[in-house]
Each structure stands twice: as structure tokens, then as C-alpha cells.
Amino acid sequence: MTPRHFALAITGASGAVYGLRVAQELLFAGNRVSMLITGAGFAVLREECGVEWGGSETEVLEQLRRHLGHDGDALSYYAEDNLFAPIASGSAAPDAMLVVPCSMGTLSRVSCGNSGNLLERAADVMLKEGRTLVLVPRETPLNAIHLEHMLKLARLGVKILPAMPGFYHRPETVADLVDFVAGKVLDSVQVGHDLFRRWGTGV
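RE: above sequence
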């Protein structure tokens, strides 16, 4: 079976750990992952996850490989200004794109078709090619502009999956809450996992 290919982006919204957890599970499941991290995303990773990442694409890729525990060719990384990356073209579009977490700025630019960097261009490619695009906003409270952009994108077929952990599985740690959201993201693209106990199943 041919591995599926996912683009996974981390923006400057709080909750970078969600993106890293999803990346781990996608790779564990045998998928290809092309990662993108915005400048603000690197700042949030430093503040929230304690990682000092940066440098060339090759250097960041090595940092990601060490952190995710994956040294194979299934993981790649592209800088946000690399508009020559394969995922910038519809002829090489991934099977799905996940923006985890998604800042309101990124969400609004995707909604308006404003492709100023690779992340926004890749998202535009997903829309024009009719591929799956999942945005995981992490913001509260939401104003009318946020909601209008989300509604516009939802009507275009984008999956809007806010980072809202559930509690019916009785989480005991922060990691349990992270796994719940990561698991819901994986569910949205039909990737199997056992990150949380499902309602009414006991497993």
C-alpha cells in the first residue's frame, strides 16, 4: 500500500505541541510528512516546548528528526519562503494538509487566498485541487471576523477542528489532553490511532 503524504504546518498560535504530536503519529503510522513552521511558530516552540530550532532547511530537518525520533526519508521540511517546494504545486499536492495549530492570521489569509508564503500557497493548492485541508485554530474568545472566515472556509469544504480537548475520557495529565486533540485531527484524515478512549467503547 502506497504511503499517504501529508503536509503539516505549525504556526504562531499557542499549542505547538499539538502539531508535534500529530507529526509523531503520522510517521508512526507509516505516512510521509512534509513539515512547515512559520517564524512565529518557531517562537512558540521555543516558549512552550523549550526547543531552540532554526537555521537552514537541512538543519531544521535534523532537529525535527531528533525530536520526533524518526530518521527516515518519510519526513521532510520546507522553509516558509521556499516557494519552489513540491507542495507549492498542484501537480505534487499532498493527500491532505493539516495546520496544527492555526493562528487567526493564517486562517484569515487562507480564507482570502492571500498566498504570501509556502504555508499559505500550499493551503491554496489544497483548495484549488479539492484536497483535504484541516485547520486547527487555537484562540479564545473568537470575534465575528474569526467566525466569518471559519464559516467561509467550512463552506469551501475545509475542516475546522478547534483545539478543544474533551474530558469524557477522564484525562489525568496535560499529555492526555494533547493526545485527545491530536487524535481528533488524525480521525479527520482517517489515520488510525489509540490516543484516547472513545465514548461508549471502553477502549
